[in-house]
Design goal:
The complex is a heterodimer. Chain A has helices at about 15-25, 45-55, 65-70, 80-95, 95-105, 135-140, 225-235, 240-245, and strands at about 1-5, 30-35, 60, 110, 115, 150, 160, 170, 180, 185-190, 205-210, 215-220. By secondary structure, chain A is of the alpha/beta class. Chain A starts with a strand and ends with a helix. The chains are: A alpha/beta, B alpha/beta.
Chain lengths: ~250, ~475
């Protein structure tokens, strides 16, 4: 089974649509959304409609900190000003069915040997960033022995893997390369952000895991970021959020 | 983990037909597939399990992974692999030829043989590095020469592929590799620098040329570290018939600082096939090892030596390219010369490590008389060489990174293409046909043929049209 791993969509309908089309061409059987469906972008309703439709057909969806903030103002704790303004705007946009969907989301989920979470598996509801070998090790230890952990929260793609040594090692994936990820060791994949890439490349990020073959491929998908940025400006959201899509930073 | 299959038995559809080798790392069996593949096969079964080091499993994983993605004539063709949980094995092409290990019995070898095998290995390394792989265990016993003369690498158990997580990174805190051949940066734990393979090639060439290993075969960490500061006895001090240019090449490969070695394997292959174009420096002329003061300075420097940051193997290739400028020396056209120079200058400016090969093709000299044939040919070559040098003068390229070649051939395009293929040229700069040439005449021109068949990027240069009066 091929499962498309999509993190940090952030209400970016153009980014999501491009990634879903790409994943379909790559033969994705199902999807896992790794949190932060909304926040920052201008299309929370359309994005949630699409995700809810996929969830009804078996996609797994977990909750991120921006999803928390879209439900409850207390959830924007620790966010910067433009993120808080976007969260407040998003709260006004959501219809009752969107709120109900977000409220029902779990903080983590499991598909065979794959554990999905927004931040760290060490504390799924706390949305802890996995930024280095130490935090990756904590996350891997928090899963009761999953072979693969897939997460988001950090917007740049990365692959951590355990070795004979004490700490996992960090690898920067090359787009489009199928990497063997056999179950003899543990792997932690940060899928990168669909809706707000931050590594200087505007292309949307996602990853695909083939559970049977134990192969993971990280992808970069060019999309119409200009349209997404114009919608952000038209919605009266902070200009900075539009600039981020145009620069990928 | 299963027990080893016997001769005559089958495994996953392969029939075991014989045993080639049984050693510490594993067993090599000849096998036959259910359907003939057109080439003989060998099955490599690693020795894994209780009592074997953990890195043997990782090494098997690395080899299987790297071999499954490598292509080209310089690696055995990969056929398939067994499940590690059941019976691990790799099935690949049985490469026919001579293992360079057998050559070691005959060392020292004649200079021509050292040069030829060095060129073959450098060409094979270029292919690996282009595919983002660093071998990290280059030594005679891991190289087979096909009857065609092409070098093939075997055993990728220590290799590094830039597109995949390095499973051996953690295990390699103790240096991995073969003590006589391992590069200084590998001693320090670096596993991603393609120039490490060039160092190992330097050790091999030194060994083949002199009959001795430049750094011996140390067993402990301090012995391994000595190559960071100790310079080997100059090959010419051991065998005076070794030419200075070859010593220059060997010492440049053996520089402890990777930045002072050749930047790419293609450049090594180029020098080994054009001895007359090698700029000999003090390295090549040296007849004694460095004095005590120099050695102390090197030792002091090595104490604090941190390996330089390295980029992807192919990124290094992209930065040290071979540019070929084909100059029509027989048709002087100053405007075109100028335009070609400008194009070449812009290419070289973006990359100081590039090399420029200035090439022209002349027709084989007509036979005037047996006595004078050579003289005519020489005069013609010199005349064209002078024009080539004059063309290149304004570029002010350092002599070590420019070379001049007057090639003979009845078909200029085929001659230039042959040269470009043999020397792994990265880009060809040629003059474009005139803009008003009718299409039917365009076919079959020098430029069209080069553009259609070149193994690399081709730049067609055309001088700007004169403006309206």
């Amino acid at each position: 089974m091929k499962i498309a791993l999509l993190a940090d969509v952030h209400s970016n309908l153009e980014g999501l649509t491009a990634c879903l089309e790409h994943a379909a061409r790559q033969g994705a059987d199902t999807h896992a959304f790794l949190g932060d469906l909304v926040g920052y972008g201008a299309d929370p309703r359309a994005v949630l409609d699409r995700v809810m439709e996929l969830a009804a057909r078996g996609a797994r969806v977990v909750r991120g900190n921006h999803d928390d903030a879209a439900l409850d103002p207390a959830g924007d704790d620790g966010m910067n000003l433009s993120a808080r303004r976007a969260a407040a705007w998003t709260r006004e946009q959501l219809l009752p069915e969107h709120r109900a969907f977000l409220e029902a989301l779990p903080f983590h989920d499991r598909v065979e040997g794959l554990y999905v979470v927004h931040g760290s598996a060490s504390a799924p509801d706390k949305h802890v960033y996995v930024t280095d070998a130490r935090s990756a090790a904590y996350s891997l230890q928090g899963t009761d022995g999953a072979t693969w952990v897939a997460c988001g929260h950090v917007h740049e793609q990365a692959l951590y893997y355990t070795t004979g040594g004490s700490r996992p090692l960090n690898f920067k994936p090359v787009a489009g390369v199928a990497i063997p990820v056999p179950s003899r060791r543990q792997w932690l994949a940060i899928a990168g952000s669909v809706g707000q890439p931050r590594d200087g490349n505007t292309a949307a990020c996602y990853a695909m895991l083939d559970l049977e073959r134990a192969v993971m491929t990280f992808h970069r998908v060019p999309y119409d970021w200009d349209a997404a940025a114009r919608k952000i400006l038209a919605a009266g959201l902070p200009e900075r959020l539009a600039i981020r899509l145009r620069t990928g930073e | 983990m299963g027990t080893l299959p016997e001769i005559g038995e089958g495994l996953d559809g392969y029939r075991i037909t014989g045993k080639l080798h049984s050693g510490g790392m594993g067993v090599l069996l000849t096998v036959e597939p259910a359907e003939d593949m057109g080439f003989p096969l060998v099955m490599k079964i690693p020795r894994l399990g209780y009592g074997e080091p953990a890195e043997a499993v990782v090494s098997y994983e690395v080899e299987q992974n790297v071999m499954s993605v490598l292509q080209g004539p310089h690696v055995p063709r990969y056929v398939g692999a067994g499940d590690l949980a059941v019976q691990p094995y790799i099935v690949m092409e049985l490469v026919e030829g001579t293992c360079l290990k057998d050559w070691v019995e005959r060392i020292p070898l004649p200079v021509e043989e050292v040069t030829r095998v060095g060129g073959a290995v450098a060409t094979a390394l270029r292919s690996l590095h282009q595919q983002e792989v660093v071998h990290l265990d280059v030594k005679p016993s891991n190289i087979i020469l096909r009857p065609s003369g092409e070098a093939v690498f075997i055993d990728f158990g220590l290799a590094h592929h830039a597109h995949y997580p390095d499973l051996l990174a953690e295990e390699s805190r103790a240096p991995m590799g073969s003590a006589p051949y391992i590069s200084p940066e590998q001693v320090l734990g670096v596993r991603s620098d393609p120039r490490s393979d060039l160092f190992a090639l330097g050790v091999m060439l030194y060994e083949f040329a002199t009959g001795k290993l430049p750094f011996g075969a140390p067993t402990g960490p301090s012995g391994l570290r000595r190559r960071l500061h100790v310079d080997p006895i100059p090959p010419r001090a051991i065998r005076p018939e070794i030419p200075e240019w070859l010593q220059e090449v060997i010492f440049r490969l053996l520089e402890p600082d990777a930045n002072r070695r050749y930047a790419t394997a293609a450049q090594v292959a180029f020098d080994l096939t054009h001895p007359d174009q090698v700029t000999v420096t003090e390295r090549g002329r040296r007849m004694k090892r460095a004095g005590l003061v120099t050695r102390f300075q090197r030792w002091f420097h090595a104490k604090g030596m941190e390996p330089a940051a390295v980029v992807r193997p192919s990124a290094q290739l992209a930065n040290a390219r071979i540019v070929l400028a084909a100059i029509a020396t027989t048709h002087t056209n100053e405007a075109l010369f100028q335009a070609q120079r400008d194009a070449v200058r812009r290419l070289l400016a973006s990359d100081p490590e590039s090399r420029l090969a200035c090439v022209t093709v002349v027709r084989p000299s007509s036979v005037v008389g047996v006595e004078t044939e050579d003289d005519v040919a020489t005069t013609q070559a010199i005349k064209n060489l002078v024009i080539l040098r004059n063309w290149a003068e304004p570029l002010q390229q350092p002599t070590s990174s420019i070379s001049f070649h007057v090639l003979e051939g009845n078909d200029p395009a085929a001659t230039v293409l042959g040269y470009a293929r043999a020397n792994a040229v990265d880009q060809i700069v040629i003059g474009a046909p005139p803009p008003d040439l009718p299409l039917r005449m365009l076919m079959g021109t020098f430029a069209t043929k080069i553009a259609a068949e070149a193994p690399c990027t081709v730049t067609l240069v055309r001088p700007p049209a004169p403006g309206p009066d």
